[in-house]
Design brief:
295 residues; alpha/beta; five-stranded parallel β-sheet; three-stranded parallel β-sheet; 8 strands; 12% strand
Length: 295
């Protein structure tokens, strides 16, 4: 942010994919950065191979997002880990931060940064209380909005039909319980629900929840894709094959991001609340995409 003009080429690379997303065309393991640097060198009169020398004479600062929820290290998704990391970064001179990318640690980061008036942006921590203080800005939509919009959709399908739907949610997770609470508050009274809750220490066995929901042909799932994939795998021969699993942004990536999970083996339909369809050919989504591309 405070860099000065220099004879050296200064590059800021921001990748929007990580983990399995590294190998996508815009991920950090893709050739996009290398090709860009090579093009810069050639356009400044360099020769093929000069990139190697330039790399040897360079240094890199890698700044990653902290405290995201990693499915293989769920214990690290813990607000008690935030304080020590925050203190270290603050003592080293942090003035602006991306905060945390999930709600539970994000709430703790919000409180700590407010005390020191450290400005933060969060790209994806969607808890309604994340921007409680003036020093924080929530770039994504809030959980309450997801719950409300999801309920509006379900109301449009089943209002006044005497319908019973299932709900699978994590009662110990701020993201899941936040969406669940607003969804229930916004759901039409003519629709009844069978609610099946679980907690973080019960992520391997969903047999109880499956028994509760086994007769539901529509199940709302405001949860992350890892427990959702486990539930779907265990329930695929028990829940009706024509059932619909409907989630929010936590399901985004369920078809590609989980090693060993093949969504094509799940007979039930899987759908989710999405911001917009990036391949839309008409309507407001296409207008937005066209304007974005034009810029």
């Amino acid at each position: 942010i405070n860099s000065q003009p220099s004879s050296m080429t200064q590059v800021l690379a921001l990748f929007d994919n990580e983990e399995t997303g590294n190998v996508t065309k815009q991920g950090s393991a893709s050739p996009v950065l290398r090709n860009l640097l090579d093009t810069i060198i050639m356009n400044r009169g360099g020769k093929p191979g000069d990139l190697y020398g330039a790399v040897e004479n360079s240094f890199m600062i890698s700044a990653d997002m902290a405290h995201a929820l990693h499915p293989n290290y769920a214990d690290k998704h813990d607000p008690t880990n935030v304080s020590s990391t925050y203190s270290t970064m603050y003592e080293e001179g942090m003035q602006v931060s991306l905060g945390c990318v999930t709600t539970k640690p994000g709430l703790e980061f919000s409180k700590l940064s407010a005390e020191d008036n450290v400005f933060f942006l969060t790209p994806s921590a969607s808890g309604d209380d994340i921007p409680e203080f003036d020093n924080g800005y929530q770039m994504c939509f809030a959980d309450g909005n997801q719950g409300t919009v999801a309920a509006d959709y379900v109301n449009s399908l089943f209002k006044d039909q005497g319908k019973t739907i299932g709900i699978l949610y994590n009662s110990a997770d701020s993201y899941s319980s936040g969406i669940y609470t607003q969804f229930k508050a916004s759901l039409d009274s003519s629709i009844t629900t069978i609610d099946a809750a679980f907690t973080d220490d019960k992520l391997a066995d969903f047999s109880g929840q499956i028994q509760s929901l086994k007769n539901c042909d529509f199940i709302f799932m405001p949860i992350y894709y890892t427990p959702a994939s486990t539930f779907m795998t265990q329930a695929k021969d028990i829940v009706p094959a024509n059932a619909v699993y409907y989630g929010c942004d936590g399901l985004d990536g369920i078809d590609t991001a989980i090693e060993g999970f093949d969504i094509t083996t799940i007979p039930q339909e899987v759908s989710m609340l999405s911001h917009f369809n990036s391949k839309a050919t008409e309507g407001m989504a296409k207008e937005f995409i066209d304007k974005y591309v034009a810029k």
